[in-house]
Each structure stands twice: as structure tokens, then as C-alpha cells.
Amino acid sequence: MKMFPGRPDYLQSTIKFFPVLFFLAALNANATDFITGEHQLSVKEKRAGEAYYRADSKWMIYQAEVADDNPFYQIFLKNVESGAVTQVSPGTGKTTCAWVHPALEKVLFSSTHEDAEAKAKMVAEIERRKSGEQKSYAWDYDEYYDIYETDFSGGNIRNLTKTLGYDAEASWSPDGKLIAFASNRRAYTEELSDEEAALFKANPSALIDIYIMDADGSNVKRLTHTKTYDGGPFFSPDGKRIVWRRFSENGREAEIFTMAIDGSDQKQITRLNVMSWAPFYHPSGKYIIFATNVHGHRNFELYIVDVDGKNDAVRVTDKEGFDGLPVFTPDGNYLTWTSDRTPEKKGLLFHGKWDHQKALESLSLK
Question: Which strand ranges, in their side-by-side order, compose the sheet holding 158-159?
């Protein structure tokens, strides 16, 4: 999934935050009650997150850990009206980064179920947890992640990438004709320079770039060309641009960027010098919501910023802990996000009414 992908231990000193302290007064001064009636959506899952909606708002897809025999996320499709939930991923290995086709009964997600060691890795993780071993969170760039599509029952599964390397973080364009995704495939398929090889050995996420391809997996094109992690791409509501987040070379900061879908006109939207990531367009196309730890390395809050980054970002949430992976419903009237504001401090889905007019006013937009 897109939660802290490639995160090293980015504990930052107080001095680290001095460059952004002058932002905080302005950021907090504009904070207002954007979300009302917020409530927890997920109940039965051990942990759940990263939910997205089909264009008609009738279906929601998300990832969750449910079964005792698999410690990794699987993908679930929910009928919003009836509440009925169907698992659409195979159930073996790891999965992440799901999406619903804007019109057809198809879903998109990444999975490692074709890895010959998938079941062995599941058992190893279960045993590690039983042992009581504690380890810091770090996203796994498993080279067996491929992007799959399947129907609403989980049948007719099809591998769209079939390339060694991390292929994930995929989403369809609004017209369903294109897929944007993140990949470090070139580390496995191309000859690397000595510098690149060293970077990849130290951190597999360093060679992850944004790619775009046709919906059938053909005509793959690399859009970003950096030696830092570019990931988490989403299309703008009109399908003309992509928003994503770019990590710094030290992996301790990330900023929000946008670009045209051919990779041109790349624009930096935030300059907070901390970890800002998980951006998502409001359906109006006027602003972007994202998560940032500008208030402390473990305290992620949601913020909004205009699509050109001309004005200061405005704070949306104010809860200690993690609030991230925000997504608007297609009509722009509600917000769903992932939060650990639970007694067990486990990530689960939350949902609330969104005040679009207040958002526009706070960003000095019409």
C-alpha cells in the first residue's frame, strides 16, 4: 500500500523542524471544522485502510487483514448500499493498492500470490508475530508484486505487468483507458550504473518511478526520471494530470507534485520539508488533500492545498497519531480516510461529511 512506502527511520530532531516552524502559525490559524459526523467505517477487520470509490459511488474497495492464516492485507469490495463485502484477491501472499474501474465491474490491485514463496512468507510472518518480536514499520518492496485486474467476484484474474520488480500503487484514469502506477522494474530489467546499483542495494525504493500504460498493460511509459522514490500516482478529475509524492534523497521528506499525463510540466505543490504524501484530488479539481507530519514525525494530519500550490496549505484534522490516505467520494461531499484513533491504535477506516465550501474559502478559492 501507500502508507509510509520506503520509510527509513526518519526520527527528526527539533532542529530539523526549525525551517518549517514559521509555517505552523499560518497553517493552524486557518484550521476549521471541515469534517462533521465522522465515524468508524470498518469494525470486524483487524486492520483496514486505503479505501477508494467507483465513479457512481456504489462500490468501495479497500484492503484489510481479516484471516488468522494470512497476516498480510487482502482486497475487499463493498456494496455501499447493502453493505455486502466480497474478497476479490486470491487470499495468498500480500496485496495492496486497489482501485475500482470507473464504469465496468472490474477491480485493480497488486499482489504477490504468484510468488512461489508466498505461503512460506505468510507462515514466517505469523511466527515472527507469535514470538513477540517488535520491529519498526517499513513498507516491503517485494519484487514479486504485479498489478492484476479481476471481476467483482474475484474471478477471471489477469496479470497486467508480468515483470520482476515492485509494480504497485496503480489507478485507472477517469475514462478507464490508462493506468498510472509505481515501479522499480528497471532495477531488474536494465543495466544500472554503479551509483544506481549502490542506491538500489541500500534502498530498493530509490529507483521507483511513476509509469503509465494502456489499460490492457501495453504501451508502458516511464514518466519520472529521478534517483528518489516517486510514487502514489492518481489522476486529476479531468484525466489530464497526475498527482503524486516525491521523496527526498535521504528518504526523510516528501513533497506533493503534479504533472501532465505525458510526464511534462512537473510542478512542486508543497514545500513543507517534512513527510507529505498520499495526495488526492477533490472532484472539483480545485484542491488536493494530503497527509503530512509537519506537527511531529509520528503525528500525521490531513491538509488541503490549492492545485497550483500558490497558497499556504490548510490543516483539516487535529488528532494525535496517524490520519492519512484520504479519499473523497466521487460527488465530493464525503471524505474517507485511514486513522489509528482507536483504543488499540490499529489503522481502520473513518468517514465523515466534507464541507467543500469551507475548503474553498480557507484556500481563498471561488
Answer: 95-100, 106-111, 146-151, 158-159
3-state secondary structure of 329: coil
Helices (H), 181-315: 186-189, 194-202
With vertex at residue 169, the alpha carbon angle to CA 314 and CA 58, rounded to the nearest 5 degrees, is 75
272, 292 contact by CB (below 8 A): yes
Q: Which among 291, 311, 304 is positioned nearest to 332, based on CA atoms?
A: 304
Q: What is the pLDDT of residue 132?
A: 80
- pTM for the full predicted model: 0.90
In which element (H, E) is residue 128 found?
A: helix 118-130
Residue whose C-alpha cell is 509494480: 167
**Cα gap 207→225, rounded to integer Å:** 9
* Strand (E) or helix (H) holding 356: helix 356-362
Distance CA 98, CA 90 (A): 13
Report which residue type is found at 168. A
Closest CA to 327 of 305, 357, 352: 352
3-class DSSP state for residue 212?
strand
Position 231 pLDDT exceeds 60: yes
pLDDT band with cut points at 50, 70 and 90 for residue 305: very high
